[in-house]
Amino acid sequence: MSLRSNDRQWGSVAKTFHWIIALAILGNGTFGLLMDEASSPMQKINWLALHKSIGLTVLALFLLRVLWRLGDRRPPEEPAPRWQQLAAHLTHGVLYLLIAAIPLSGWWFNSVTGKPLQWFKLFNVPALAAKNDDLTHFAQGLHEYLFWFLILVLVAHVGAALKHHVFDRDNVLRRMLPFSRPHNDSTPRGNS
Ligand code: HEM
Ligand code: HEM
């Protein structure tokens, strides 16, 4: 498998970005929701610090992924009605926005609460905004609801991937899976 994407499948770099970010964002969101289960205030502080560091890492991976994607090509689209291709583009665009917006909203939330921020205890990260008690409630809600919105969009995204695999029997899912090889018998159409 080559590093770059080609006519038949996504390259290993694009696949690695896709699956690491998918796992990290879903894992970190679940972690965020379970934070109140901490057995002591000290454990909660440690969990929160880990949650924030993982989240900032997702933001950095997002930037690297976008840079890579700008220089990479994408495999040609499988034949599908025009509206489905448009819906896929829209969904992918929204997913990219959410990968950035969720950690950014967490960073903003942390800033308006006036709490310090570090990346894995290695270095300090500056605040995005000044402390502002009037905004903390809104910022927390925004951070949480963006995550729930991601889950909603993901239902459509995963549903579409499974529809391609099970009903259309094309290569859309196979060519994004880590160790899978696409079939030969599909006729690619167009490119974007
Ligand atoms: C992968 C990225 C991230 C995801 C998916 C995510 C998701 C979540 C979720 C679902 C919650 C629970 C919301 C609630 O119960 O109020 C949460 C809480 C929180 N997140 Fe994030 N977050 C991410 C990144 C960040 C970052 C980068 C920061 C700060 C720099 C951050 C700061 C916080 C804080 C302070 C809380 C509140 C925890 C509490 O007080 O219970 N998050 N996050
Ligand atoms: C939070 C989790 C996920 C996020 C944020 C996400 C995001 C994305 C994005 C942004 C793309 C567009 C890639 C590009 O054009 O550069 C994409 C493609 C893709 N994703 Fe996901 N994804 C997630 C989870 C999943 C899961 C669980 C599956 C499978 C069941 C999946 C299957 C696919 C497939 C097959 C493609 C390629 C579509 C094509 O070739 O046109 N994704 N994903």
Q: How are the SSEs placed, and which strands pair?
A:
Elements: H1 12-34, H2 41-71, H3 82-112, E1 118-119, E2 123-124, H4 133-168
Antiparallel strand pairs: 1-2
Helix pairs in contact: 1-2, 2-3, 3-4
The chain binds protoporphyrin IX containing FE (HEM) (2 copies).
- CATH hierarchy, class: Mainly Alpha
Any low-confidence stretches, pLDDT <50, length ≥5? 186-192
Helix content: 55-70%
| Global morphology | elongated
Distance between the termini: 21 Å
* Strand coverage percent: under 5%
| Quaternary structure annotation | single chain
Strand order of the largest sheet: 1-2
Bound molecules: protoporphyrin IX containing FE
Structural class: mainly alpha
Largest sheet: 2 strands, antiparallel
How many independent structural domains? Answer: 1
Counted by DSSP, the helix tally is: 4
Look at the structure and give the mean pLDDT: 93
CATH architecture: Up-down Bundle
DSSP E strands, number: 2
Secondary-structure element order, as H and E? Answer: HHHEEH
